[in-house]
Write a structure and sequence with these properties.
- This protein has helices at 2-10, 12-47, 69-74, 82-114, 129-142; strands at 57-60, 78-80.
- It is mainly alpha-helical.
- The chain folds into 2 domains: 1-48; 51-143, no CATH class.
- Strands 1-2 form a two-stranded antiparallel sheet.
- The relative contact order is 0.07.
Length: 143
């Protein structure tokens, strides 16, 4: 049983998947920071700092007028937090676009590295051995 487990772990697919998960987790932090710290503030400049996170509707319970989403949740009221959902969708689309652009750039670099260099065309060679023998034979016949 132990040998089977060792063979399973030693397979390339399992190791590749483990490395992919670890790199993916680290990459998630980078993409989240890129979107949250760099892209969203730029978008906020153009949209006037619009943030839908605190938009919600009270379904039941008492919530003070103008209270934030967190305050409304703390009161125990039943709320419909449509603004948080809208912001999650917007952030997803931004993150998906950033990941798409990064993968596209990596693929372009990978293709450039894999493109084989075409060898220079060789200089024309003289007649082959068969051509020379045919020429000699024809010359001997002509005599």
């Amino acid at each position: 049983m132990l040998n089977e487990f060792k063979a399973f772990i030693a397979k390339g697919n399992v190791m590749d998947m483990a490395v992919g998960i670890i790199i993916g987790a680290a990459f998630t932090a980078i993409v989240t920071s890129l979107v949250g710290d760099l892209i969203n503030p730029i978008i906020g400049l153009f949209t006037g700092g619009v943030d839908f996170t605190n938009n919600y509707a009270v379904l039941s319970g008492e919530v003070a007028a103008g209270a934030s989403l967190e305050t409304a949740r703390e009161t125990g009221a039943s709320i419909f937090a449509y603004g948080a959902f809208i912001m999650a969708v917007i952030n997803f689309l931004i993150i998906a676009w950033v990941v798409f652009m990064l993968v596209k750039a990596v693929n372009r670099i990978k293709e450039a590295a894999e493109t084989p260099v075409e060898p220079e065309p060789e200089a024309p060679k003289g007649p082959s051995e068969v051509d020379l023998l045919i020429e000699i034979r024809d010359a001997l016949k002509a005599q």
